[in-house]
Amino acid sequence: MTAQTLLHRQIHPTSFRNGRVESPAFRPSPEHKGLLSTEDGDRITAEAAWVRYTTVRRFDSVGSMAVTPDECAGLVLPVIEDGGTDPKLSAEHVSIDFNGLDRKQTESKSKKLRDAAVTRSWTHRP
Amino acid sequence: MPIDFLKPRLIGSRFDGAAIPLEVLADFAGLNELLIKTAKWVYLQDHPERTRSPRGFTQNLELKIVGIEDGSAKPVIQLFFLAVAAIAPSLFPVDAQAYMERARDTVITAIDAAATGKPITLPPKLLRHFERFGRSLQDGESIEFREAVNGQPAVRLDKPTRRALLLAPPDSTEVTDPAAFLGLIPNVKQTEGTFDVELAGGPRVTLPFVHQYHDEIFYAASGYTNRLRVLIEGVGRYDRGNRLVGMESIDAITPIHPLDVGAQLDDLRGLKAGWLNGDGPVFPGADLNRLEDLFYQNYPAELSPPHLYPTPEGHVRAEWSLTRYEASLEIDLTTLVGYWHVLNLDDNSDDAYELNLAEPAAWEELAEAIRKLPGGQP
After folding, report:
1. Residue B114 pLDDT greater than 90, yes or no
2. Is any Cβ of chain B less than 8 angstroms from the Cβ of A47?
3. Tens of pLDDT along B286-310?
4. Does chain A have fewer CB atoms within 10 Å around its N or its C terminus?
5. What does the domain layout of chain A look like in residue ranges?
6. What is the structure's pLDDT at B298?
7. Contact list, B258 vs chain A (CB under 8 Å)
8. How far apart are CA A68 and CA A79, in angstroms?
9. Per-residue confidence at B60, pLDDT binned at 50, 70, 90?
10. Partner-chain contact B276 A104, CB within 8 Å
11. pLDDT tens, B259-287?
12. Whole-angstrom Cα distance, residue B139 to residue B289?
């Protein structure tokens, strides 16, 4: 993984409404212990990540967007290569760590990540 | 000389100040029809040897509203006798008057029976007149025919009582009621002359194609995948479970802006438990209705509309992308506390605070915050 590696993030249908992706798509949901799930684009393509997410894990996703470790570093968000450390995580899993942030900081950083991802546009859109 | 015949009391805020909305007058035309048909039925009950009432039985009678008294609105209905023609020589006006008065009492008795769960004696062909009479009543409104006296409860016609009257015949399966609902149009079946409407939560209903709304129907059908909704208004047909099964008439079909708050919240109404890959709660309809009302009452229409999203915590999140600003308001539907946050994407300056959206002042603060952002007021 390099500073420019694409970290693929699946977008749930309720996060993409009327043509716009919401910023919480780029912050961890409550049960994820402050860790935002992505997958290492150097090891799996956006399309393959989406196919596995929707057909193997049978979760809902309208497509993949991506941010980079460089963009996370600019926001002082640690990037953790934790693939395979937990049976629930894929081998390519990468977490973006939001722990230790207050609500206002979480809001700002997720909005910045969203802006970077939306500017890049979809990395896979079925 | 006309005689005082009926002075029902219309109860509900729409009738405050002795006011009666024009649409309610159609109900009274229905009452007129019901009373005349009931008078004929009572006559035939008295004369079982006859198969029909005398020719012109009620032609020399007319019911008229001659005034409206306060309280909250009491239309004063009098029975008028027209110049007597030799239409029904066997029936003097006084006889017709008596039958009309018995008809009035019979109808009031039927309403009382429906409201109190007693057997209803009016035959189905007369009960069908409640399709028209009482249709314009809204939730919480009623028409009182007899005040509560001496421990006897008042006799009132309201929506549940009207339903009970219409569904009293065992073979009665549907009730009509004014309907206004949002829906998507997934397809138009031109060969069958119908189109389908997908309601909030997914159930579908098939409606007759209305040529008057040809453009709106096809426009909405072409925008189905983009969730382009239409507002359909008219008279709906509801089954015994109060589910919409069709439309008796369609008065208007109006495409709705995709960011219309009501339309967006409609999507949230349809979410089932576990909507977020197994997580995510149901959004209570009453909470969404309250939020919708607050938005319509307090959020200025000239400002940029928000995009609305559900959150895993059961909150509603409003977001605005305004030039280089990202703004959001995450609303706890239970407490109505909203967490406002705005970020300048260029210099990373941000601001955040809570708003008590139960207070109009909080909405003014929100509107001002949006207004001062570039693009907040297009």
Report:
1. yes
2. no
3. 999 999 999 999 999 999 999 999 9
4. C
5. 7-120
6. 94
7. 18
8. 9
9. confident
10. no
11. 999 989 988 988 999 999 999 999 999 99
12. 15
Model confidence at B360: pLDDT above 90: yes
Cβ neighbours of B311 in A, within 8 Å: 24
pLDDT value of residue B330? 97
Contact of B327 with B370, CB cutoff 8 Å: yes
Measured between alpha carbons, how far is B11 from B333 in angstroms, rounded to an integer?
32
Partnered with residue B182 across adjacent β-strands are: B231
* Burial (CB count within 10 angstroms: exposed 0-12, middle 13-18, buried 19+), residue B335: exposed
pLDDT 10s digits, B36-53: 999 999 999 999 998 888
Q: Are B135 and B28 in contact (CB under 8 A)?
A: no
How close A45 comes to chain B (CA, Å)?
Answer: 22
- What is d(CA A12, CA A24) in angstroms, rounded to the nearest whole number? 11
Q: Sign of the C-alpha dihedral, residues B289, B290, B294, B295?
A: negative
* Cβ burial B257-266 (10 Å sphere, 16+ → b, else e): ebebbbbbbb
* Cβ atoms B328, A107 nearer than 8 A: yes
Q: Does A20 touch chain B (CB under 8 A)?
A: yes
Task: Enter the DSSP assignment of A26.
Answer: G
* Res B93: pLDDT: 59
Interacting residues of A13 by C-beta distance below 8 A, sequence separation 6+? A60, A61, A62
Q: Enter the ipTM.
A: 0.93
- CA distance linking residue B324 with residue B349, whole number of Å: 11
The alpha-helical segments, DSSP class H, found in B47-180 are: 93-116, 124-127, 159-166
Average pLDDT value for chain B? 91
Cα dist from B191 to B131, B188, B194, B205, B213, whole Å: 31, 9, 8, 17, 17
pLDDT value of position A42:
96
Peptide bond into B72 cis (omega under 30): yes
Asked if the Cβ–Cβ distance from A115 to B279 is below 8 Å, we say: no
Kindly determine whether residue B307 and residue A115, on different chains, have CB atoms separated by under 8 Å.
Answer: no
